[in-house]
Specification:
Blueprint lengths: L1 H13 L11 E3 L14 E2 L2 E4 L25 H6 L8 H24 L26 H6 L7 H17 L5 H23 L4 H30 L4 H22 L10 H13 L2 H11 L3 H26 L16 H30 L2
The chain binds zinc ion.
Pfam families: HlyIII (PF03006)
InterPro entries: AdipoR/HlyIII-related (IPR004254)
Membrane topology: Multi-pass membrane protein
Amino acid sequence: MVVADLMVSTVAVEKASSFAEDDGQFLLTPLQDGKKKKKRSSCHQTKCELVDYHSLPNFLKHNEFILNYYRSEWPLKQTILSIFSIHNETINVWTHLIGFFLFLSLTAFTVMMVPMDTTVSSPAPLHLANLTSTTNVSDPLNLHHHGLVTMSSLRQANLTNKIETDQARQITTRWPFYAYLCGAMFCLIMSSACHLLSCHSEHTCYVMLRLDYGGITALIVTSFYPLVYYSFMCDPFFQTLYISFITAFGIAAVLVSLVPVFETPEFRFVRAGLFVCMGLSGLLPIVHKVMMFGDRPEAVLTTGYEMVMGAFYVLGVLVYATRIPERWMPGKFDLAGHSHQLFHVLVIAGAYTHYLAGLVYLRWRDLEGC
Ligand SMILES: [Zn+2]
């Protein structure tokens, strides 16, 4: 730690240059010859300036290897408008904001292109991307909605037979997949908001960090839902057991995150460890799935996606916890390329991989039922 502080000081002095944008709202003023500014706010009237790490209040000191371009206790309006300016959180905000819109698009795609139920009387394999919305012939309420109950008795008899056949196959429930998409979107938008707003005040930081951890927990917990629900659709005991376990684990993780000491830098590894444990507990249902359906191509393919997803997440957590690469060259990755930005990209990659696995689960159960 002492060596790290020495490195930070040395690089800070080397970077002791100051420049300003006269016509802009935001001023860039890195450390000046070791003078430690301790002012509480870095704003004067409507102009806000970016400050160095040592000028930050303790609640904003999360990474001593990022030396400059911090916003510190800016008024709310300037804090919100800073989404359009350059500082050391700009890319953190935008990576997950773009990720949020990506998942919003995927959700819209899923709603439009993957019907609530399929006309499973078709013997040919169904390709989800080619499916269009169809009348839900296996749902009596939907039939009623479409006025089909008033059709001729012959056609009604045929439909009744079809309903019985389709109900025997069991309708594939969609909520686990949509729960996952909602969990991913909640995580991404909370993360983006947290990075944008936390600099406003200590209280805002406290609230936003809890929402951020809540979002990560929601992503992890809801990632289990499609995996467990569709893998064990024919085994309600294990389906309920796994879903209950991970949901309880997620609630416990959110409660633990409410303890104030949880957010201190010293607890970085505890935070990362908690999320890793949650993620690793997913190994159990995955191994169980492979044992039950190891000969099925859908099980092999989804497990492959889940392994890739796990690799993205583990790599992301390692980068997050070790703060590579900025620890190797403090100050060189302040604006772009620091660990948290890499972590964000890896989270999106992992979440997208899991979305692809979810599509395979849906196709599997749409075609086979239970
Ligand atoms: Zn983040």
